[in-house]
């Protein structure tokens, strides 16, 4: 039986490069690549995407929509790493640990949309707690997050690492118009009934995310506290390879968060910090925006799809 053929459309971007690096040495699959001169040729790209078994789109949103629309071969399955299809009803959301049965849905899907890096952390924290009724669906959620500059793609890497890089330390809060595209994705897949407040920022380091969600226990049901939320998350992610819930108490207790701690991995670590006397809880996620937040998620979804 021939090895499945994988085509990475956009393998020169930050996500595409990492996916290619992770797959190029494998002998159980075949990789289709286009010569540099043909990478922007619509006909050559359409031929490649229709000759593969699974296409991974690492493109801007508009180009991803065009690439997906160019698929006419019914055998071809697609993983889209852009944000073009993340809330589309015909695409399966590629967060296998999100709810029970999601991994099976990804495995059998024809079209899978990779989650965004920030939504991976936010949805990972919120969806189990909202589904369990511990956080109300109408809770006024605020999300603060900082990512490495590679979250901006090649432009961010060039600005900090290119020949004209200033070398000065930078930390920039952005999305101040409060219309960041990840907010809609978070609302849709976390189960919230109102748009959350999302405040993203870039740090002066290459990759890695810390995302936090503050919770006031006075706005929760009587008796729900940090320990309750932690137990729910621990039960939901028990046995998962790529999502770990960190302990609240020693040994192994987390007392600080390093956004670069999981760089180079496909892991996400979730933590719950609590002060019962103050009635305050802080939910936190740490992940590599190029790992579990991008290329690692694509590979995880690919592995699931290769089982069917």
UniProtKB/TrEMBL annotation:
Q: Where in the cell is it found?
A: Cytoplasm
* GO molecular function per UniProt: N-acetyl-gamma-glutamyl-phosphate reductase activity; NAD binding
Which terms in the GO cellular component ontology are assigned?
Answer: cytoplasm
Q: What is its EC number?
A: 1.2.1.38
Catalytic positions? 117
Reaction equations catalysed = N-acetyl-L-glutamate 5-semialdehyde + phosphate + NADP(+) = N-acetyl-L-glutamyl 5-phosphate + NADPH + H(+)
Whether ATP-binding counts among this entry's keywords is no
What are the BP-aspect GO terms?
L-arginine biosynthetic process
Quote the PROSITE patterns the UniProt record gives. Answer: ARGC
- Tell me, in one coarse class, where this protein mainly resides: cytoplasm
Which Pfam families does this chain map to? Semialdhyde_dh, Semialdhyde_dhC_1
Give every Semialdehyde dehydrogenase NAD-binding domain span.
5-106
Listed A to Z, the keywords are: Amino-acid biosynthesis, Arginine biosynthesis, Cytoplasm, NADP, Oxidoreductase
Record function comment: Catalyzes the NADPH-dependent reduction of N-acetyl-5-glutamyl phosphate to yield N-acetyl-L-glutamate 5-semialdehyde.
Of which family is this protein a member? Belongs to the NAGSA dehydrogenase family. Type 2 subfamily.
Protein name, UniProt field: N-acetyl-gamma-glutamyl-phosphate reductase
Q: Which species is this UniProt entry from?
A: Pandoraea faecigallinarum
In the UniProt record, the gene name given for this protein reads: argC
């Amino acid at each position: 039986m021939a090895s499945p053929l994988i085509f990475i459309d956009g393998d020169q971007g930050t996500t595409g490069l990492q996916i290619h690096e992770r797959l190029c040495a494998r002998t159980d699959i075949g990789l289709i690549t286009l010569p540099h001169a043909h990478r922007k040729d619509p006909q050559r790209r359409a031929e490649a995407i229709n000759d593969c078994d699974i296409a991974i789109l690492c493109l801007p949103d508009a180009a991803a929509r065009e690439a997906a629309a160019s698929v006419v071969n019914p055998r071809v399955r697609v993983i889209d790493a852009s944000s073009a299809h993340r809330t589309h009803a015909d695409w399966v959301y590629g967060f296998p640990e999100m709810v029970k049965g999601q991994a099976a849905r990804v495995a059998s899907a024809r079209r899978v949309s990779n989650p965004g890096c920030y939504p991976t952390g936010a949805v990972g924290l919120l969806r189990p707690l909202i589904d369990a009724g511990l956080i109300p669906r109408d809770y006024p959620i605020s999300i603060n997050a900082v990512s490495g500059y590679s979250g901006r793609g090649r432009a961010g890497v060039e600005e900090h690492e290119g020949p004209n890089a200033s070398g000065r330390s930078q930390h920039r809060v952005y999305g101040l118009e409060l219309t960041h595209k990840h907010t809609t994705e978070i609302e849709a897949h976390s189960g919230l009934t109102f748009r959350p407040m999302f405040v993203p920022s870039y740090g002066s380091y290459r990759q890695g995310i810390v995302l936090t969600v503050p919770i006031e226990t006075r706005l929760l049901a009587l008796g729900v506290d940090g320990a309750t939320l932690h137990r729910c998350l621990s039960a939901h992610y028990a046995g998962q390879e790529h999502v770990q819930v960190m302990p609240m108490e020693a040994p192994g207790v987390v007392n600080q968060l390093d956004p670069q701690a999981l760089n180079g991995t496909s892991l996400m670590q979730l933590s719950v910090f609590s002060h019962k006397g103050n009635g305050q809880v802080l939910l936190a996620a740490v992940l590599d925006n190029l790992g579990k937040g991008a290329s690692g998620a694509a590979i995880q979804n690919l592995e699931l799809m290769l089982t069917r």
